[in-house]
Specification:
Elements: E1 4-9, H1 19-33, E2 37-42, H2 54-59, H3 67-75, E3 78-84, H4 92-101, E4 108-109, E5 120-121, E6 127-133, H5 138-143, H6 148-159, E7 166-171, H7 179-194
Parallel strand pairs: 1-2, 1-3, 3-6, 6-7
Antiparallel strand pairs: 4-5
The chain binds flavin mononucleotide.
């Protein structure tokens, strides 16, 4: 069954040499070769303001520069994020993007006034994968830092709006990695794309 995949490249640096971009390209290649429909959003190419207030979050609307991203999120069945670990978590630009996007009307709905219920998830039924590159070994991030920065994205943001399961792929020591290891990772991305995983 072909899937509708939204691929979000969450690297603030638009430079073509970033490894995250190569990983995203391979994922897209694999997905397209298997007949999946894929839409790609590169946050480095977007122009949007930071969210500044709760009023803006609750009563405002998605900024013009993110309307295509909001529509693609609604369209998608599977969402893939590719980004580098910066200061233990996602880069601030990606967080800013999510603060604007994961808002009432797009990602969840507040309960009716006085009903006291929980917010209703709008994106339920979608799955996600986080592909995270980092300077340290992946096992150090998992075991010593307990993956806290990424758990926030998985649980507080994606889980909150009903996106699950959220699978994770960590690529550590990316700066000094051999060409053979790099190729193996790109092949793995192609396989994941082909399986829409
Ligand atoms: C501002 C900044 C903060 C970073 N913080 C971390 C960090 O907390 N832990 C880590 O392992 N690597 C850290 N790194 C290294 C990046 O994760 C690494 O350069 C990146 O994953 C490489 O992928 P890229 O080629 O796509 O940029 C940081 C890099 C920058 C520029």
């Amino acid at each position: 069954m072909p899937s509708k995949i939204l691929l979000i490249v969450g690297h603030p640096d638009p430079g073509p040499k970033r490894f995250c971009r190569a990983l995203a390209d391979s994922y897209a290649e694999g997905a397209e070769s298997a007949g999946h429909k894929i839409r790609r959003i590169d946050i480095a190419a977007l122009d949007f303001p930071l969210l500044r207030s709760q009023d803006e979050f609750q009563q405002g609307s998605v900024p013009t520069g993110l309307q295509d991203a909001a529509e693609a999120l609604t369209w998608s069945e599977h969402v893939v994020f590719v980004f580098p670990l910066w200061l233990g978590t996602m880069p601030a630009l990606l967080k800013g993007f999510l603060e604007q996007l994961m808002r009432p009307g797009v990602a969840f709905a507040y309960p009716e006034a006085g009903s006291g219920g929980w917010p209703k998830t709008i994106l339920k039924g979608r799955s996600a994968r986080l592909v995270v590159t980092m300077g340290m070994p992946g096992f150090v991030y998992r075991l010593w830092f307990l993956g806290h920065g990424i758990a926030g994205l998985r649980r507080n943001i994606l889980g909150f709006v009903g996106i699950r399961p959220v699978r994770q792929t960590y690529y550590g020591l990316v700066e000094g990695v051999s060409d053979a290891r790099r190729k193996a990772w790109l092949d793995e991305m192609r396989r994941l794309g082909a399986g829409a995983h």
